[in-house]
Amino acid sequence: MERREFMSWAGTGFIAASLPMAIAACSSSTTEKPDAATSTSPEPKADAKPDAAPAAKADADGFIPVGTVADLDKAGFLSDKKFAGGPLIVVRDPQDKATVLALNSTCTHEACAVRWRSEKFACACHGSSFAPDGAVEAGPAEKPLAKFTAKIAGDQVLVKA
User: Fold this and answer.
1) Which residue of 11, 27, 60, 69 has the fewest CB atoms within a 10 Å radius of its CB?
2) Where are the residues of the annotated region Disordered (predicted)?
3) CA 103 to chain centre
């Protein structure tokens, strides 16, 4: 076998071996939707805080602790991607700082993550924005974010699953 023929076969073999990896990298089933972690925005990201402990137990009324009031006030939000009722984000109500609002952090347009930005929720994928209570402010989303019942008990923020 000549050197030129060997190099031709080696190159063909390399390309053939790389093909499955290239196909897998381009498939839509393995591609992640943009979320707050991929945003280039200097604003806080919804997943910047560690998620709440996955083994949090519900109290007698069905409320689950998702973080402390101190953490909420420090970061401006609490986030729990593994919450029993779905991905969760909790913020203080801008109209009543004694009240907390808990919403599903998945955009109703195409299931991308939303993040808290300056008294509203913003979708990283297609630009939808939502009011603090989850109502749609700007599309393309047409449905509001799902709400959870939330409260403050002592130094804990509790959300009902």
Assistant:
1) 60
2) 30-56
3) 11
pLDDT, one tens digit per residue, over 30-82 is: 444 444 443 444 444 444 444 444 446 666 677 888 888 888 888 888 888 88
Determine how many CB atoms are found less than 10 A away from the CB of residue 54: 10
The parent domain of residue 1 ranges over 1-31
The torsion angles phi and psi of 4, rounded to 5 degrees, stand at -65, -45
Q: What pTM value is reported for the model?
A: 0.59
Nearest to 127 by CA among 144, 116, 141: 141
Structure tokens at 75: 């970061």
Residue 123 and residue 47 share a domain: yes
In this structure, are 19 and 44 located in the same domain? no
